[in-house]
Structures are given as C-alpha cells and as structure tokens.
Amino acid sequence: MNEINDEKTVKKQYASSSGLATRISIHDKYSTNKMGFGNWIFSNYEIRDGMKILELGCGTGSMWTGHEVLLEKNEIILSDYSEAMVETAKEKLGEHPNVTYQRIDIMDIPFADETFDVVIANMMLYHVPDLSKALSEVRRVLKTAGTFYCATFGTHGIMEYLSEILSGYGVKDTTNKNFTLQNGAAILGEVFPDVRCEVYPDALEVTDIEDLIDYIYSLESMTALSAIPKETIRETLTSHMENGVLHVPKEYGMFIASGIIGQETEKEN
Fold it and tell me: Which strands, in side-by-side order, build the sheet including 52-55?
C-alpha cells in the first residue's frame, strides 16, 4: 500500500461526517437484514458493568444510539483519528459522566499497558498505514483477559458488484483490502492467540437508484466515475434492476480476539 496516498484518501473521505452519513443511510434504508449491522455488532459484545472501554474510529458515534445504558454503566473513551468525527460523535451522543471524547491515532495510543477490558475498532483497520504497529498498540493497552472487537467487510460485496456492472466504463474495484474477512484472521493471529470470525448475513435491495448514485460518489475509490456522466451511470444501474429492485450483495462481519484462548465472559443483558 502507498501509505502517503492512503492517508490522504482517508483524511479527505473523513474530513467531515457528510460522506459517512451518506454511506450509512443507504444501509439503513435498503438492507434486507432488519436487525441492523450496528445492533448486530452490539449483540456480539460481551460487556459487564464497570468495564473500561476504548473505541478507536468511532466515526459519528451513531452505532451507540439506542445503547446509551452502556455509556452510563461503563467508563468509555470514544475516539477517532478525525477531529471532525470526534466532534460529531460528541454532538450526537451528548455529555455522559463516564464518557470521554478524544482524538487518537491507533498507531500511538496514549494509555498505559493493560488499561482496557474492551477495545473496539470497527470498519477502520484497513485504513491504517502500519497495521502491525496498530495491533501491537491495541494488544498493549488491552488487559490480558480483555477482548478486541473489529468489524470489517469481505471482498465479495458491494464494491465488487458495482465494479463488475460498471467495468465497461473503466471502473475497477480499488477498495483497500488490507484487512478483510478473508485475511483478517491471519493478521490478528500474529498478535492474538484466540481469534474467531462472525459473519453478518445481509444484502441491499435498492429501489431508488439516486440513493445508490449518491453512495457511489461519496467513495474515494470510485473517483474513476468523475469523467462519466451521471445519466450513463444511472442508466446502467437501472438496467440491472428486476421488478424495480436492484439486488446488491453485501459481505460484512467481525473478528473477536483475545489474549487468552477460549476467553469467555457474560454478555450484558
């Protein structure tokens, strides 16, 4: 990976919360799994009252909406590499006695060894320039019996599908694949002795192509489309609809890693 270019892409894509909100909204509107990815992620968390939790790459903080009870019962640090995201999360979730908002670089986590019971880094590890260093930092600040949760995407999802149907216009799948469902276990296995993967079954059934066009243009990996008229993209996507619906595959899931093999805790009810 070209670390400099990737860092520039991340800064541009996450400079404000608007692009991220666009990408989140299409999942909220058209996902076939009505549980919701965020709710599913939380269903996998094993959190007991009084835990100390660090989230890296919290984004807008939207996934914590509806789970405020955890914000009240635990000491939580919500952080992001982007200052704009940190501010957005703070505005969205508000002040809580046990919650701190902070800008943090995952490659240089400013906390002592074995500080946290839980560390979370969802949908962001593929952006990290030095993943080995980042995961070493996560392992360092995580208690030996703690748990690391990191959701990510698979290679056979939305981007692969869109690139295939738009390939005639020179569009290629240039998605950063540094950490996916396909290679994540091996990468985490270099740092954590216990790693398991959970897969979230889902797809998109898009009925308004304009929403998908907005989604596509919010992605830096789709910059090749800038030279193609939107009407051409609209016609191409529409031609693949069946009975007014465009079926788009999704591949998402998460890894759960621990410093102790077979580590088990009780889930928060």
Answer: 99-103, 75-80, 52-55, 116-120, 142-153, 252-258, 194-200
- DSSP assignments along 140-174, one per residue: HHEEEEEEEEEEEE-SSSHHHHHHHHTGGGT----
What are the residues whose beta carbons fall under 8 Å from the beta carbon of 97, sequence distance 6 or more? 72
Query: Quick check: 147 and 259 in contact, CB under 8 A?
Result: no
Domain extent listing, the chain: 3-156+177-202+250-258
Q: Please name the fold of domain 3-156+177-202+250-258.
A: Rossmann fold (3.40.50)
Q: Which residues of 113-134 are buried (b: 16+ CB within 10 A; e: fewer)?
A: eebbbbbbbbbbbbbbbebeeb
CB 249, CB 146: distance < 8 Å: no
Q: b or e along 177-199 (b: 16 or more beta carbons within 10 Å of the residue's beta carbon)?
A: bbbbbeebeebbeebbeebeeee
Per-residue pLDDT of the chain (269 residues; tens, 9 = 90+): 333 334 444 444 444 445 667 788 898 899 999 999 999 999 999 999 999 999 999 999 989 999 989 999 999 999 999 999 999 999 999 999 999 999 999 999 999 999 999 999 999 999 999 999 999 999 999 999 999 999 999 999 998 999 899 888 888 888 889 999 999 999 999 999 999 999 999 999 999 999 999 888 887 766 667 678 889 999 999 999 999 999 999 999 999 999 888 755 444 43
Hey, is 136 helix, strand or coil? helix
- Work out the end-to-end distance of the chain between its first and last CA atoms, rounded to an integer number of angstroms: 42
Return all residues near 80 (Cβ < 8 A) that are at least 6 apart: 14, 56, 57, 58, 59, 86, 89, 103, 104
